[in-house]
Specification:
Strand order of the largest sheet: 3-2-1-4-5-6-7
Shape: globular
Number of strands: 13
Distance between the termini: 21 Å
Structural class: alpha/beta
Number of domains: 2
CATH architecture of the largest domain: 3-Layer(aba) Sandwich
Helix content: 40-55%
Order of helices and strands: EHEHEHEHEHEHEHEHEHEHEHEHEHHH
């Protein structure tokens, strides 16, 4: 590493393929692309970034390894108890390696995304030259331990960032951090050049389907979507829903589709690397998540000028999508509300104004905008 460059390390360990890790890659890429004074490295602690290795190398981002081999397949991933157990083991395994890495490499900044309690505990126990920056997403429930840890750690932390205004306001109301330390930092979801290329890579013959995208987990609430769609299919056998994703709920979702003879109308796709041509041809993108912050696929759909039908879940969707201004909004987990708004889309053909307003609204999530915001925060 060149000594005159400012070093930014990213800490974002995860067991499964999640959007947060793509945001980490985009952030590291943006910071090194638009300012040659920064050198960005992603900590590939137990092999969680191996699946993105070709992308990372292409973007000329450095990976830092803590172990000689990938350990990601050694941990159980699915189910609340199993994943909690895995995170506990990762916490124990990572304590000294992460502490030694920060001491030895002494990056200027450590940006923390996931398994946040570990670096915060290290910040409390040891003195580092490195400035710690914590990203908080969602509206976290603070148990006694977490609130106590945060309150102490926030006295030493350099900055805290939030991806939405709702989360920012929520954290401020807790009165555990001073105003000058907390900032809104929009996630780097949109790489304009990359998305425009990907949209043209595949010509799909089918059109006018509804599209849902995400991990097949309880949080994404796809069983609700399938059940709500069932009644509409009984009324109109021509409507189709495509769900793209993989995850622990796949079997139960597939069982519901098959047991109700919905295979012709609800099509369960696997994970799709390039989802953008599917956005382009969809009648509307549907979001049913119990929570999102901010909601990466929501932003990607908006940038592709796809009509968005979203629930009012907090904090991201409620903030980003305003009913009849830049999308159509239904009440979370409310089948009647969902049917009313779905009928509106089926009957009404033109939503160009809503699509354009949404396209304008999500431009703040470009990688260049993220670079500008983060540069100001670092300085």
């Amino acid at each position: 590493m060149e000594s005159n460059k400012k070093k930014i390390f990213y800490w974002s360990p995860s067991l499964v393929n999640i959007a947060t890790n793509k945001a980490v890659i985009n952030s590291a890429y943006a910071m090194s692309k638009y300012n040659k004074e920064f050198e960005c490295c992603i900590i590939n602690f137990f092999g969680e970034f191996e699946r993105y290795k070709s992308i990372i190398l292409e973007k000329k981002i450095k990976l830092i390894y803590c172990f000689n081999k990938s350990l990601i397949n050694c941990f159980p991933k699915h189910g609340k108890f199993k994943s909690r157990f895995s995170f506990f083991i990762i916490f124990i395994m990572s304590f000294f390696p992460l502490k030694n890495l920060i001491k030895k490499k002494s990056p200027d900044y450590l940006i923390i995304h996931l398994i946040t309690s570990l670096p915060l505990l290290l910040l409390l126990l040891f003195n580092f030259k490195t400035k710690f920056i914590l990203r908080i997403s969602g509206l976290p429930n603070l148990n006694f331990f977490r609130k106590f840890l945060w309150k102490l750690a926030f006295k030493k932390i350099y900055k805290v960032t939030c991806p939405t205004i709702n989360t920012y306001n929520y954290i401020k109301k807790l009165n555990i951090i001073s105003d000058e330390k907390i900032h809104i930092l929009y996630d780097p979801v949109i790489n304009i050049k990359e998305i425009n290329i990907k949209k043209k890579q595949l010509n799909l013959e089918f059109k006018d389907y509804f599209l849902a995208v995400g991990r097949l987990t309880k949080q994404k609430n796809f069983l609700f979507l399938c059940k709500a769609f069932k009644k509409k299919i009984e009324e109109n056998n021509n409507i189709k829903l495509m769900i793209a994703g993989e995850g622990e709920e796949k079997k139960s979702i597939m069982n519901y589709i098959v047991s109700n003879n919905l295979e012709k109308n609800i099509i369960l796709l696997n994970h799709i690397d390039n989802i953008f041509p599917y956005f382009k041809n969809a009648k509307a993108f549907i979001l049913t998540s119990l929570w999102e912050d901010p909601g990466f696929v929501l932003i990607e759909a908006a940038f592709c000028r796809t009509l968005v039908l979203s629930n009012d879940s907090e904090p991201g969707p409620k903030e980003l999508v305003k009913d009849n201004y830049n999308g159509i909004v239904f009440k979370k987990n409310n089948v009647q509300s969902f049917h009313e708004k779905l009928d509106l889309i089926i009957k009404q053909k033109e939503f160009d104004v809503l699509k354009f307003n949404n396209f304008k609204n999500v431009k703040k999530f470009t990688i260049f905008n993220h670079f500008n915001y983060l540069t100001k925060i670092l300085s």
